[in-house]
């Protein structure tokens, strides 16, 4: 089984809102036991390239997907390992979620560096408050349990080491 390593960024602005990206599900990735949704929200991030570690990939992906470079990096918060079907093949996805803070204007986020394929799949970038997340009834949020996970982070309850998330 192929393994795909990924890095994601739990990016908080100065108002303690988290940036999420709304993705179109092109049907390429199916998580067994999860409903297939046409659209879902997920923190910025993507695959780890050859020669990168998870944090290097997080830094690169943040610039590519948001244009933001001046962030304060925190620890790796969460690890999510899940078996998925990707383009009809079984894949072991290993994602690491890093905390980062952006003190500039929330309006600085830009989609300008997205490649054409990403531009087709990325619908919207939005800053979400904890209250917005808690009220996101019917929205597909990734990782599962994001409102509760973020509540711990905002309350200063950071894990001693990365917390392993259930699929």
From TrEMBL:
> Gene3D superfamilies this protein is in?
Nucleoside Triphosphate Pyrophosphohydrolase
Keywords annotated in UniProt:
Hydrolase, Magnesium
Cofactor entry:
Mg(2+)
User: What GO molecular functions are on record for this protein?
Assistant: hydrolase activity
Q: Which residues form a coiled coil?
A: none
Q: Which residues form the signal peptide?
A: none
Q: Which Pfam families match?
A: NUDIX
Q: Which residues form the Nudix hydrolase domain?
A: 2-150
Lineage, top-rank taxon, reads Bacteria
CDD domains hit by this protein: NUDIX_Hydrolase
Classification via SUPFAM superfamilies = Nudix (SSF55811)
Which PANTHER family does the protein's record reference?
A: GDP-MANNOSE MANNOSYL HYDROLASE
UniProt lists the family membership as follows: Belongs to the Nudix hydrolase family.
Q: What is this protein called?
A: NUDIX domain-containing protein
Organism, scientific name: Nonomuraea polychroma
């Amino acid at each position: 089984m192929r393994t795909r390593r990924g890095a994601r960024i739990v990016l908080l602005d100065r108002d303690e809102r988290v940036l999420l990206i709304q993705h179109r599900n092109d049907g390429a990735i199916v998580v067994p036991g999860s409903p297939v949704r046409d659209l879902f929200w997920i923190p910025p991030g993507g695959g780890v390239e050859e020669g990168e570690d998870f944090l290097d990939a997080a830094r690169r992906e943040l610039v590519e997907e948001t244009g933001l470079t001046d962030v304060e990096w925190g620890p790796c918060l969460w690890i999510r390992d899940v078996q998925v079907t990707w383009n009809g093949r079984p894949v072991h996805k290993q994602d690491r979620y890093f905390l980062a803070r952006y003190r500039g204007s929330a309006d600085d986020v830009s989609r300008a560096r997205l490649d054409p394929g990403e531009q087709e799949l990325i619908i919207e970038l939005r800053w979400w408050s904890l209250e917005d997340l808690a009220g996101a009834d019917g929205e597909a949020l990734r990782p599962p349990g994001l409102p509760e996970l973020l509540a711990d982070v905002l309350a200063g309850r950071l894990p001693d080491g990365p917390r392993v998330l259930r699929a």
